[in-house]
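CORE FACILITY INTAKE
Project code: CF-77B
Contact: R.S. (postdoc)
Sample description: multi-component assembly, four entities in total
Requested service: structural model of the whole complex
Turnaround: standard
Below are the sequence entries exactly as provided by the requester. Do not edit them.
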Amino acid sequence: MPRILVTTEDFDVGAELARLESGAGAIASFVGVVRGESDGRELAALTLEHYPGMTETALAGIAETAMTRWRLTDCVIIHRIGRLVPGSRIVLAAASSAHRGDALEATAFLIDWLKTDAPFWKREDFAEGGSAWVEARTDDQKARDRWQIGGTTAA
Amino acid sequence: MPRILVTTEDFDVGAELARLESGAGAIASFVGVVRGESDGRELAALTLEHYPGMTETALAGIAETAMTRWRLTDCVIIHRIGRLVPGSRIVLAAASSAHRGDALEATAFLIDWLKTDAPFWKREDFAEGGSAWVEARTDDQKARDRWQIGGTTAA
Amino acid sequence: MKILYFAWLRERIGHAEEDITPPAEVTTIGALTDYLAARSPAHAKAFADRRAIKIALDQRFVTDGAALGTAREVAYFPPFTGG
Amino acid sequence: MKILYFAWLRERIGHAEEDITPPAEVTTIGALTDYLAARSPAHAKAFADRRAIKIALDQRFVTDGAALGTAREVAYFPPFTGG
C-alpha cells in the first residue's frame, strides 16, 4: 500500500527504499534537493506551502494511479513543507516492482504528476533579500501530459 | 567523477545517494534485488560471476557515456558478485543532475546498458536442487538499443 | 463558507482564510470571485489576473461556471509548483 | 597466451583458465576457437554452439576473422546477464 507523507522533517532515503525491497526485484527512486541558486541568484532558502487536507488526497490519488497503470509492488511519496535551506531534501518518489521497466517509469510518472497535480507552492527566498513565488513551467505540464497519450512509453 | 564498485559485500543505498546530493537538484536511482522465484521455481540463490579487469573498465565506460550524454553532476554503479540469497541487493545505478529529466533518463540508461554491456553472468540455484545459467533476453537488448536512436528520448 | 488563499494570493490579500456568507444572488464560482475581488483594494489586486488563478471547491478543481451549491470551502491559488 | 572461460563455458570445460601456445598456423580468432574445440571432448561440447559464444581479445569484443597478433588474453563467454 502506497506510503504518503507530508512533513516538515527530513526523511531517511535508505530506510524508505529498504521498505520497498520486500517482495520486489526492482526499486527506482527520485530525490529532489534544494539547489543553491535560481537563475543565477543565490538562494537563502526555499519555502514550501501546501493545502492541508487536499495534499494527502492528491498524493494518494497520484500513487493509486501509478499502482493501477504499472505492475508495482508498492510506492512512496514524501514531500517536505516549510523553510528548506540549500542542500535539503524536498521530495522522495519511489516505486518497486518485479521488473525494472515498471519501477523506472512509475517513478518518473510520480514525480511528473506530483509537480503539476499536488497542491504545493514554492517561494524562493534570495540571499540578497527579497523573495519570489516560483512560476509553473510549461515544460512541467508537458512532462505530465506525456503520460496521458497511449498509456506507457517504451521501456 | 563516477563511482564504480564491484564487490561481494552489500552496499548502503542511503549513503551512496547522499553522496550524489552534493551540488545536485535531482538524484535518481535504481536498485536491483534478488527475487525468491524464477519462472515459478523457488530460488535458493543467485550466483554472479564476472570478468575481473574487464568489468570495471566496462562499467566506467558506461558511466562515462552517461556523463557525456546527459548533464549530470555525478553517477554511481555498484554491482555485487558471488552468491546472493533472495532479498539481497544486486546492483545500484544512480545519477544526479540539476534537473530531474537528466537524472531519471541517465539512470534508466545506466541499468539498461549494464545488463547488456558489462561482463556479468547470473546462475540461478534452485531450492529443489540444480541450477541454470540465465539466458540473455531479447528485451534487454531492445531496451539497450533504444538509447542509440536519435539521442535522448522525450522527458 | 470558508475561503482559503495560498501562495501569492495569501500574501497579497494579507491572510490565509476568511469566513464569509455570500449574498443569495452569488450562486456560481465566477460570481463568488467577483464578490471577493470587491471586498478590498488588496483583494482587487490579488484577483487582478484571473487567468493566473486556480480554484478548488471542496478540494476539487472548478471553473467560473460551477454552482456554489452547498460548498463549505473554496480555495484560490496559483498553479502548483511542488516537487 | 591466456585463455579464459566464463559461466557455462567454464563449467563445461571444467576450468576457468588455460595457458596455451597455439601452433604458428593459428593466426585468427576463428582458427584459435577450432584449435581449442579439438583439445578434449569437454572442449568440443562447450564449443558446440558457437553462435551462443562471445569472444574478447585483450578485453575487446572480436569475431572469427580477427587477427590474433600479439594477443595476451582471449576470453570465451555467453552473452552478459548482469544487472
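Facility notes:
- Helices of chain C lie at 7-13, 29-37, 41-46.
- The interface with chain A takes residues 4, 6-8, 10, 56, 59, 75, 77-83 of chain C (CB under 8 Å).
Invoice: internal transfer
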